[in-house]
Amino acid sequence: EVQLVESGGGLVQPGGSLRLSCAASGFTLSTYSMNWVRQAPGKGLEWVSYIRSGSNTVYYADSVKGRFTISRDNAKNSLSLQMNSLRAEDTAVYYCARANFIAASASYYFDYWGQGTLVTVST
Amino acid sequence: DIQMTQSPSSLSASVGDRVTITCRASQSITTYLNWYQQKPGEAPKLLIYTASTLQSGVPSRFSGSGSGTDFTLTISTLQPEDFATYYCQQSYSTPLTFGGGTKVEIK
Known about the structure:
Chain A contains no helices and 11 strands.
């Protein structure tokens, strides 16, 4: 059974740092592209970052570029998001999501999501 | 960036109603369009991918259509467990943007 479990959220002051982790089970994380998506309280979904399968190609939303770093630990089958220079507007539930890509049918979608971890940036 | 606009932002409906939600992209995304359902306190759940393909395990009362810039999610006969917020997402290019969501409430 595929499972994604996030951890590492919490309360942090503006300007601080936090590292989120996403432990994967039931599949080999390195063979899938993985994403972070966040949701501010009472708001919609915002894609944050992506790391491509089989390579270290990464992409970031403009809102986090230069402050957040996505990475993968294949030995631990886990995904991470290092968040620096945190701002109040980064307050959100952060989800990791597995992406499934099927070239033949032009499909790219998030088929499994973790339960999310809450990050609160406040004094 | 590709902007995704959903309408309506909310709607009230009764069990048994037919519900239609629209999603419009700011440029053509061919069929790189996915639909997710989210209930309060839960993670989003994939319903439909590639505009019209039903994810395994999702009831057949859900259907999707469209290509290019205009897409539709239809719930043929609304069930009590369908009251939730629905999001479209384009996966044509980064940033992978979501629509603002449509909250389906009980009338």
